[in-house]
Amino acid sequence: MLVDKKTAWDIVKLARHPKRMTSRVLIDLIFSDFIELKGDRLFKDDQSIIGGIAKFNAMPVTIIAQEKGSDTNDKIKHNFGMPHPEGYRKAIRLMKQAEKFNRPIITIIDTPGAYPGIEAEERGQARAIASNLFDMMTLSVPIIVIVLSEGGSGGALAIGVGDSILMFENAIYSILSPEGFASILYKDSAKAEAAAHIMKLTAKDLLDFKIIDGIILEKEGLHINPSYGMDALKKQLTKHIHQLQKLKINTLLERRYQKFRQIGVYQEEGVKHE
Cβ distance 147 to 109 under 8 Å? Predict the structure, then answer.
């Protein structure tokens, strides 16, 4: 089934399918010799973000991934993929380690959003997200972002600043959930389906807006035919890593800056808006 044959709400439901693979499953299928590294060296280890060192085509890489968990107990353990600030601090710690040893960074986005609880705010949730955005913009190694299923708000963007952003065909990436959008726009979260159609949250929409750089096709879907999507991901990862590694550092950083600087720029009646 092609991406343009499905409605936005169809894709939202597929992105949230209970049998859709999580980031840890993807890591096990795509990478070898994964060694998980834990902790932010300040508070504790947040298991909604997993990270470490692995190999891709025999090349060392650093992986940072948001993990939702599989069964009920696992979901609770991983806080349903909603990171606390210590998760984001762990992520940037591992990214800076990757920069030190000149390893490409691969991040995997799969979150409805950052955890909104009081304790997360008390420990500096907003600052942790903002610090990641700032620091990722200047990391001197290639960063490739994969949007696996859900990419919600700043919780996703905090590991989403990259040189190449790839998105699975049945994933969504947006400023907030359709339910949250409907609550604001229509004062009724039950109108999430209508909200999804106007949010432009699908891979095709975001490719048209030049926010992402490629769509990873899934055929029947990752919950039915995971091998097809994984083969497509391997090909795109190989291509993008090869292209990015050929760039000089100054060129890499300038391209990354300009990529995000252009998001949100539009033309209306001869006047340029930013």
Answer: yes
